[in-house]
Amino acid sequence: MSRRASSYDESDVRIRPGKGSRPRTKQRPSHDDAEDAMVVSVDRGRWGCVIGGDPDRRVVAMRARELGRTPVVVGDHVAVVGDLTGRPDTLARIVKVADRTTVLRRTADDTDPYERIVVANADQLLIVTALADPPPRTGFVERALAAAYVGGLTPILCLTKSDLADPAEFTRAFADLDLPIVLAGRDDPLEDVSARLAGHITALIGHSGVGKSTLVNRLVPDADRATGVVSGVGKGRHTSTQSVALALPETGQGRGWVVDTPGIRSFGLAHVTPDDIVDAFDDLHDAIEACPRGCTHLGPPADPECALDELTGQSYRRAMAVRALLIAVTGQTPDGTTDPETEQSAQTDR
Asked: How far is CA 236 from the centre of its chain?
């Protein structure tokens, strides 16, 4: 052994600690300096947020590591920290997602167990439907109504292209649901629509090509949402590709927001049960307490003891309208067969 080598001992050896030698703490930062914000856009792992609901205080944020895979969608109320200046190339962090008050959900189809959250915390749903080109389809409206009732949103039916057809016949199917109906055709004034949206967060849904983006551009002049023409096969082009919340002009009723969503070709309701829909109506909620277990509320012969048949007056008329909605959504008739109109709707509307 050389003289140089024999002069070394264990104190000369540097031991590199292993990766797991540092104990991990379960404590997380309290983020007392976090500011409240609302998510207004989502794009490839980055979230656009407005601080304090002020559209002029916008930041781009990433999801903090401690949130893991917690879903964050447009409309979520979040807490953000970091660089909140909003300057180009700056990035804040979302460190908390508040509990949602309402959720608009859909599935790819009625057998898909995976629920997709369309928008969170909206209190209204504007169902945009064209009266022509493409022709209106009650199946989509009925499904949107069911999703709104179950999700806790107040639905409003908005009819576009009213210069091409009379809305009376189409709207007759929803007369007993107390569904607000507004016109937003090219030549229709928008005062009624604007008044209903003021001070609310309203999600807009509709098939592609019904004029939804055109309506948004009229409501929010600087929105610059892309518009397109309807294809020859009866379904429009997808002119909106990402959901985005847009601030409406401020009024005496406070700041309102519209959430423009991509044109929807499918609206599955795998997560919705008949009780969910009936429960949304205050005057029917108590009535179904008297229904036998397993009642589908479709009426005889399937449900000969359904309590909805015992109602009278306006409550009975609403119950029958809700029953028609259940048949449209479930595709089942009282005799247990599949409703052919609903089956056709499933192929064209969803």
From this structure: 20
* Distances 234 to 136, 170, 177, 209, 349 between C-alpha atoms, Å: 10, 18, 28, 9, 11
SS3 93: strand
* Interstrand relation of 244-247 and 257-260 (parallel, antiparallel or unpaired): antiparallel
Average pLDDT, the chain: 83
> What integer pLDDT is reported at residue 348 of this predicted model?
42
Q: Could you tell me the end-to-end alpha-carbon distance of the chain, in angstroms, rounded to an integer?
A: 83
329, with CB counted inside 10 A (0-12, 13-18, 19+), is: buried
Q: In the prediction, which pLDDT does 21 show?
A: 58
- Tell me if 10 is assigned to some domain: no
Reference 296, options 341, 339, 334; nearest CA is 334
Q: Please tell me the predicted confidence (pLDDT) of residue 231.
A: 32
160 domain-assigned: yes
Question: Torsion angle, CA of 284/286/288/289, rounded to 10 degrees?
Answer: 170
With a cut of 70, say whether residue 133 has pLDDT above it: yes
Q: How far apart are CA 105 and CA 322, in angstroms?
A: 20
Alpha-carbon distance of 103 to 216, in angstroms, equals: 21
What is the pLDDT, as a whole number, of residue 239?
45
Whether 92 and 143 map to the same domain: the answer is: no
Question: pLDDT tens for residues 312-333?
Answer: 998 899 899 999 888 888 877 7
CATH number at residue 73: 2.40.50.140
- Domain boundary residue, one of 44, 62, 97: 97
How many structural domains is the chain composed of?
3
| Angle in degrees, 0-180, between the axes of helices 340-348 and 313-330, rounded to the nearest 10 | 60
Range of the domain at 283: 274-348
- What tens digit of pLDDT does each residue of 277-326 get? 888 888 888 888 899 998 989 988 888 999 999 999 988 998 999 998 88
Is the peptide bond preceding residue 55 cis, with omega within 30 degrees of 0? no
